[in-house]
Structures are given as C-alpha cells and as structure tokens.
Design goal:
The chain is 25% helix and 24% strand. It is an alpha/beta fold. The relative contact order is 0.14. Strands 2, 3, 4, 5, 12, 13, 14, 15, 16 and 17 form a ten-stranded mixed β-sheet that branches. A seven-stranded mixed β-sheet has the order 1-6-7-8-9-11-10, with helices on one face. The chain is built from twelve helices and 17 strands. The two termini are 35 Å apart. The chain has a domain of 284 residues: 4-Layer Sandwich (Purple Acid Phosphatase, chain A, domain 2), CATH 3.60.21.10. A hairpin with a 2-residue loop joins strand 6 and strand 7.
Length: 408
C-alpha cells in the first residue's frame, strides 16, 4: 500500500507527488490515471518562523485538533452567500469561529452535502448539491480536512463525487478530502497528514447511504470491522502517531447514541483509534470515554451535531466544536484533554446567517433568529440553548463558558 503524507511545510514537486499516488478522495497527490494535480501544503507555524527568522518547531510534544459538525446546504444556506451580481461568498458562515479554527494544528469540517457546483444544478433536500464557493470559505477559515463519508455522498451519484474532487484538486490542492473516491486506486490510499511535527491519520466512515446502492464499492468508505482493522494497521505502518476516527452514524435527532454507535465505537477503539468524533444525528449527543481492549482511554464525541443548516428544529441550531489536545512520548500518543464548545446557528438573511459560540450568543440574536418562524420553535432563546446543552451534556457542561472540558 502506498503512503501519502501531507505536511504544511513541504513543497512537493509534480514528479514526487505523482510517485506517491493519490489520497482517497483527496487532491493532494498527482496520479496520472486519475488526473490529480500537484500542490503545495502549507504549515503556518513554519511560515511564521521563516518570516521571523526563528528556527521552525521540530517534533513538538503536543498537537491540537478541532472538528465541527455537518455543513448542510439547504436552500436558505445557499442563498445567504448569493450576491446581487450573481457571485457567491460564504465566509460569513465560518467568520465567528475562524480564530479557533486557525489556532488549531489540524481542523476538520464535515461537509455532509456534495459540492458539485452549478454545472450539476444546485439543489437542497433530499438530493443535495451545493456551490463550490462553500469550499473556498472552508479553506479561508483555516480548515485542513473535509470529511465526506456520509449518507448524502451519492446524492448526485459518481458525477457529483467526481465534480467535487475535481474542484478540490484544481482550486485547493492542499485540502485533504476523506471518505469519498473517484477510482479504486484513490480509495486504496490512507489519509495521513503531518502537523506540528507529528503524523495524524483521519479515518472517515459512513454507516448507510439512504438506501442508495454503491455504484462502485470504493466510492464511499463504509463502516466495516475488517476494513477498520486494515485501515488502522495500514496507517500505523505508514507512521501515524495519532488516529482520529470520524464515523457518520446514529439516529437523526436522537438524544443518546444507539446500540450500533456503541458497537462501532468499541470496534474503532479496539482497532486502535485514539479519539472518535461522530456526526449525522444533526443534534448534540453526550461526550463519553471508552476503554479499549488494550486498556487505552478513548474519548468519544458521539455527535457534534450540525455546524450550519436550514433545518427547522430548535435542537438542530445548537451544535458543538470538538477540541482535542494530544501529547506524545516514546510510548505513543495520549489524548489528555477534550473540549466540547457549544455553537449556535443564526438563521438570517445574507451575511447574518452564521454560527457562533454559545458564549458569544445573546438574547437579542436569539430573538431575531429565523428559526423562531417555524412551528414549535417560538420559544427559541439563548436561555433555551443553555438549558438544552446542560441537559444533553450533563453536569460537566459549564453554562457560563458554554463548554464541557474533560482531562485525563
């Protein structure tokens, strides 16, 4: 199995990238048979060190990781970025969390709906296709990894997957896109990326496809115990210090993880995942810690909910930002701190459509939130958001800071 490592501080030549092969569903490598283009992957820390004349950091003892939930491009979200001149800009969706995203060594976003672009016809539920300018905004906010194994990945079939991957390769070849692929060769690669002097693997799986059969077995990475074991072994062999598992699982709008989630979480932990960050239910679910078969402590964010959507339920407006801190020693990686910071989506026109930290959210904003126009949502308020998070996340949730903190 070929290995593909991405590092923000490396500038790969086209020949070197072509030799390394193509990352699953990702634009970072050049493979002639799949038309992949080479690109530069940028390391902020090293760039800053170069500018200041200081020595770049080598092999730091800590790494910070951030992940946000599902980006669902309902028509109201798509329309928020459409200008009078017909151009599109979606920076406003991420503007209020961009500082957090940029500060993390590695930042992940769950792009649940395909970015096939206008050529395929933009559409919302139940068969989504979104504008590719959303991807521009994700890059601009500082995200490094796009999670794409989910039940909407085939909303536009293989054409949608191909169109989105072509976009990433041409527009943002430094973005790692996981969970989808447009060839068997691409699907055979493992997403391994270097940050802060350490190698991180991001394993992304879907658990169902809305009843749509896979046109090719390799086009969406599906949860399977043998595949998980094989993936973990492969990325460890490729030098991964830290394994982050990102399953798309569970029941929509459920307050608690179901039996399948618990079973798959144990499978992932026992296989070697160091932290698990889940999505799909569209609402927050609790944070827990599992014990793996080899005795490791494995934190689990059962669901971080939506990051942004046009859904019409109050609970879908409250999501979470997972923040993970890992330390490294000769014994390996150890996740020793996790934070779940509550976020609130403001439904509004234009640039007012955005997601903020609960700690920054006000009753004035809540009173103007467009969610209140939907039946049963008239009681939406900041106080309701705080109470919801307290009930969902338990006594460890700090209502003032708007976050839950766990330390090993």
């Amino acid at each position: 199995m070929a290995r593909m490592m991405l590092t923000r501080r490396s500038l790969f030549s086209a020949a070197a990238l072509a030799g390394l092969g193509a990352l699953a569903g990702c634009s970072h490598a050049a493979a002639p048979e799949t038309g992949r283009a080479p690109g530069t992957v940028f390391d902020r820390a090293h760039a800053e060190a170069d500018a200041s004349g200081a020595e770049p950091p080598e092999g730091g003892e800590r790494l910070t990781l951030l992940a946000v939930g599902d980006v669902l491009l309902h028509p109201s979200v798509q329309e928020s970025g459409l200008g009078e001149d017909g151009t599109r800009d979606y920076a406003h969706l991420f503007a209020h969390v961009a500082d957090d995203v940029e500060a993390a060594d590695l930042a992940l976003v769950s792009q649940e709906t395909i970015l096939g672009g206008e050529a395929l016809g933009l559409s919302g539920y139940p068969s989504f296709n979104g504008p590719q300018e959303v991807g521009d905004a994700e890059v601009g906010a500082g995200f490094d990894v796009v999670l794409h194994a989910n039940n909407h990945a085939l909303d536009r079939g293989l054409d949608g997957i191909a169109a989105e991957l072509a976009y990433w390769r041409s527009a943002h070849p430094g973005m790692l896109v996981t969970g989808i692929a447009d060839s068997r060769e691409a699907a055979g690669e493992r997403p391994v990326i270097e940050r802060a002097g350490h190698t991180v693997a991001v394993l992304n799986y879907a658990t169902y496809m809305n009843g749509v059969p896979l046109p090719e077995p390799w086009c969406v990475r599906m949860m399977d115990a043998e595949l998980v074991a094989s993936d973990v072994a492969a990325v460890r062999a490729a030098g991964a210090d830290l394994i982050v598992a990102c399953p798309h699982w569970g029941d929509e709008y459920a307050a608690e993880p179901n039996a399948d989630q618990r079973g798959w979480a144990q499978t992932l932990a026992d296989a070697g995942a160091d932290v698990i960050i889940g999505g799909h239910p569209h609402v927050l679910q609790p944070f827990e810690v599992l014990a793996s078969a080899d005795g490791r402590t494995v934190p689990v964010f059962w669901s971080v909910g939506n990051f942004v959507s046009g859904q019409s339920r109050m609970d879908t407006m409250v999501g979470g930002m997972a923040q993970v801190s890992a330390s490294f020693s000769d014994a390996g990686a150890r996740v020793d701190e996790c934070r779940l910071t509550a976020l609130v989506t403001q439904r509004a026109k234009g640039e007012g459509f955005a997601t903020r930290r609960l700690a920054d959210y006000t009753e004035e904003l809540a009173a103007a939130n467009g969610i209140r126009a939907f039946e049963g949502c008239e009681g939406f308020s900041r106080a309701w958001c705080v109470e919801f998070c307290s009930e969902r996340l338990g006594e460890d949730f700090d209502p003032v800071a708007g976050e839950l903190v766990w330390r090993a």
